[in-house]
Amino acid sequence: MKTSIKIVSILVAGLILGAVFNQMLYDADLDGIPNSRDAFPRDSNEWNDNDSDGIGDNSDPDDDNDGFNDTEDFFPFNFSENSDNDLDGIGDNSDFDDDNDGFNDSEDLDPFNDLALKFSFKNVNLIDRQNNRQTAPFIFFLYQGTEQLKRFDNEGNPWYVPWQETFNLTADFEYNIPDNQTLHEFTVVAYFLKFRNSEELDISGSNSSYRETIIFDLKNKTWLNSSSILDGSLDDSDDSDDASLTLDIDVFNFGYLKSFKWTFRMVDYQFSYNFDPARYSYYVGQSHKIFDYSDYLNFVTINDPELIEIAGILRNLSIEEEFDSLREIDFLLSFSQSLKYSEDNVTAGVGEYPRYPIETLVDQTGDCEDTSALLISLVEILGYNASIILIPEAWDGYGHAAVGINVTGASGVHYIVNEGEPDETSYYYAETTAPGWRLGEMPDLDSNSAYIYEAK
Q1: What is the pTM of this model?
Q2: Which of 21, 25, 165, 288 is the 20 to 30 Å CA partner of 101?
Q3: How far lies 191's CA from each of 142, 175, 243, 254, in Å?
Q4: SS3 of 160, please?
Q5: pLDDT tens track for 94-103
Q6: Distance CA 67, CA 75 (A)
Q7: Are residues 152 and 293 in the same domain?
Q8: Strands 340-341 and 365-366, sheet pairing
Q9: How many domains does the chain have?
Q10: Per-residue DSSP letter, 383
Q11: Do 238 and 281 fall within a single domain?
């Protein structure tokens, strides 16, 4: 009996040793990669060496040995590529159109940026008085060749401009121009509107026309034939239709130039920002699916460079006003609340479409989870701790999303996370969907039972 047990034990031990030996021959470091395909068969932490430098890819900070760290290399395994300016998946060294503006880099005046012009008409002066009325109805147009680019007016109506006084207009227009063309010609035409016939005003320094022709040199970013004041009184004629327009022309990188205006504590604030279309398209192309409540945090983007710049703009406004932390949070909250509320089925055509913050800012609209992701991103960038608050039964059949913010000195409605633990945190309720709500104030909901997910 004992002999048979010994034989069985020996057989079992042999089988085990054989299996181990066989495994060692197949996968010595037990990392799941066969020895034949494992560049480091004795190191379970490494199995590949893309650049053959003797350092495994998991440890190598530069896997293609091109001099660019993997964290900043768009193509970490491709030695010949490291950047992708237009985010089209083609490396800049291989891409014939690095700004994706439709013009080959070899003919593009700025191969990394899609250029545009911003026309800013500052003011008008109706130099020659035409009648005894106090004001004159005034409009003007911008043309390129025979194409009318823009009619400038006061929201569909003419401006009523006092005679012989400088009248502020603040009329802007952005125009995307061909980047492969140096000279661009435009014409400005101004009118005094009369009951029967409109009268063209003389804004040109030339005797040959009342219209001012502008030739802009895109390469040197200068006007060739005009100054910033279009003035009909500078010609030698004795006509009585002279007027002047003050105009600035700036070159900028074409994108989504958006203006934001809102009111906080009876003071109006505003700023403009030019969003990169490629970055907006990138976010639109990302997944917008939600499988679990915590997935809403996937739309918080604290590392986005454009969002960091916008947070910086808001921080600078806060510093100028000498806001303390609580006041700054309410200021940021008022900015988020100023964006138009809209349902996803109206703006996106689907029942649920959570937006990334850049999408919300470019679209200038969103619902509760969109403005919540935006506010969380902004306050996290500025150094505050935040969470998303999800209330499944906020109203009959409807859920609601809001933001929780941890800030010293706050009061009002709040939720406690990890209560009684060393990392206990109070998140004060922030309503992002309607103007006027301050930190700690909550609308009248059917339920305030919520799921809290901290942004990390």
Answers
A1: 0.56
A2: 288
A3: 12, 22, 10, 30
A4: strand
A5: 888 887 778 8
A6: 12
A7: no
A8: parallel
A9: 3
A10: T
A11: no
